[in-house]
Amino acid sequence: MKAARTYGRYLLLSLVAVVMFFPIYWMVSGSLMTRNEIILIPPHMYPHAPTLENFFLLVGHADFLRYLLNSVYIVSISTAVSVFTSLIAGYIFAKFRFLGKRTLFVLILATTMIPFQTYMVPFYVLTQKMGLLDTYLGIMMPLFVTSFGIFFIRQNSYAIPDDYIDAARIDGAGEWRLFLRLIVPMLKASTSALTIFQFLFGWKFFIWPLIVTSSAKKFSLEIGLQIFAAQNPLDYQLQMAGAVFGILPILLAFLFFRRQFISGISLTGIK
Amino acid sequence: MTKSKSAQLRFVYLWMGIILAFYIVLRFIPIFNSFRLSFFKWDLINPVKPFIGLDNYRRLAGDEDFIVAFRNTLIFSVFLVSLSLVLSLAFALTLQKKFRGKGIFETLYFLPYVIAVVPAALSWKFIYDPTNGALNHILGLVGVPKQAWLINDRLALGSIIAMSIWQRVGYNMVIFTVGLGEIPADYYEAARVDGAGALRIFRKITLPLLTPVTLYLLIMNTIEAFNIFTPVYVMTTGTQSAPGSVTKVLVMEIYQNAFRFFKMGYASAQSVCLFAIVLVVSLLQFSTFGRRER
Predict the structure, then answer these.
(1) Is residue B256 domain-resident?
(2) Which of A43, A144, A243 minimises the CB distance to B122?
(3) What is the ipTM of this complex?
(4) Fewest Cβ atoms nearer than 10 Å: which of A107, A142, A207, B190?
(5) pLDDT value at position B2?
(6) What is the topology classification, in CATH, of domain A63-269?
């Protein structure tokens, strides 16, 4: 009876796992096929003569390597800026008293409930006025602050004892050094969780780069891939290769740092 | 001591000033302008941008596209949020106990969440392809006739919902797992001593104690669902995909009005509506479930 239940559970879990993994498997399988193989009916369940030619084509004829580098550049910088602004603001909100603190905090927190999509139109108008349309800075800009990050770091900063901070001050540490040398290392776990969260968020952020970028030289991987797919609607083998290109960096990072990813996401979920 | 106090103040005001400046430019001004623009006939190209009061809002009430988009977004949100929450709670409960291979299942279920949306949507689009897609082939093995998943107007929205559930469920599962882990084991122990069955324990202990987590996920998922864009955009561009109006959602409508027809004022009025809807729904959810918590 017990064994039957165990097997039943494994069977059910495996079935769900197959469904969850299938779109990724199908993408990889299709990316290794030739055009002649991918259009076969009934479809091949795996590439019978796997080839990497689609990938060579994407790097050689299309600009996928450039898109990849653009994405890495855009997401790395914006993540670094947002993690920094979250750290410093979160720490100050937790450990200092100053004029207007409550009002400012409430205002910042209120913006977590307002998604970017609801103010992307005026954001575009503003970016245009600043002359930043189709620039890297313009693409990264909305990601420079994150109310969620500030809140998250504030919550975690409360755990740092005031005595520690005061002791460092008596030892003559300046505020800036205190922050870099004492506070940031103590917030290591939450910083890495926030970094993973922000990196994923930035990597998946699609609508703003779609609106603000116009020259192919500045396309992120997501935009480049979408436009490439729209131009080659019937070449599924190339689309799938492009898709594999698009998921590979994050997928590799995830497989190497699986524990950190999952615990990072769960850390950022507890409010 | 006073020297240290003034150094602290300098530090605080310098950095808070910078953060505030960021917020003013990147959040407060655009959010405020979203409201302001909605009262103007604001054409991106036309230099004349007259104030027209509530005219944009009046036009919205009779705009068929907007009403369809609103209806689709509502259907999308209801199904995505309810199904993904139920499924992810079921996954979290199944994966709660330690057993061999648990890590592998957890990883596989979480995997779709870390994947970028465009590649995922392209893969699903290929799977849904009516002529040589995998789904029709697999269903064909059990005798289901071929379907045009993304083209048929009765299936298109559901097909996109399915893809979104697939991407969302892993995240919800991880958060539910955290919530479940925080319920003290003594509670379960005591209930079992009292002879409560599994279903009763779930209803009387697990579910009520999980309410804060459920509420958080409910609100977060609803906000995201109402703002859905990327999967719809990717899966409905190009040939062999859904006709716009059948799957048109609110953000798509805003995007097209603003960046295809350059009607920034009108698009802003739609944005304000989206904002208001999300706000009302979140408040409703909060007051309904938040009260039960007490």
Answers:
(1) yes
(2) A243
(3) 0.92
(4) B190
(5) 59
(6) MetI-like fold (1.10.3720)
